[in-house]
Amino acid sequence: MKLKHLAYAFLALPLAYSCSQSGNNQSRNDKAKVVDTITQCYTSAFEGDSALLKLKITDSTKVEGDLVIRYAHKPKNEGIVRGEFKGDTLYVDYSFKVGEGGNEFSNPLAFLKSGSNLKMGVGVIETTLGRSYFVKDKPINFEKGKFDFSLTECK
Q1: SS3 sequence of 86-104
Q2: pTM to 2 decimal places
Q3: For residue 6, what pLDDT band results from cuts at 50, 70 and 90?
Q4: Mean pLDDT score, 28-47
């Protein structure tokens, strides 16, 4: 009977060893999947209005961050941006609140990257089923945008 238990224990050792090795491979694969994340901050000012944009860029294309726009004569807009770079253009959805405790809104935004700057564009926005987006056949005009964001040190 003791020999039978010893045989089972002996047979279980390779199985236990192989399971522990696959766990090590998993952790190696997890480490390999770690992606570079870059944090960049931008500021802009235009005729008494100002804006602060803080971005976390993952895989050099996916973006998430915060945007605060302070208007000279209106309540500030504060919220989050999520989106991605497509070529030299950053497309994001901006979910924000107007003023303190206001309603939440969501709008698409587009920024053209030029050197280390981001220029906010102006485009025709359409809303369908509660979702806003840029109209496909209408170009986004980056010359008319009032916010030209300059790269700055994050605080």
Answers
A1: ECCEEEEEEEEEECCCCCE
A2: 0.75
A3: very low
A4: 79
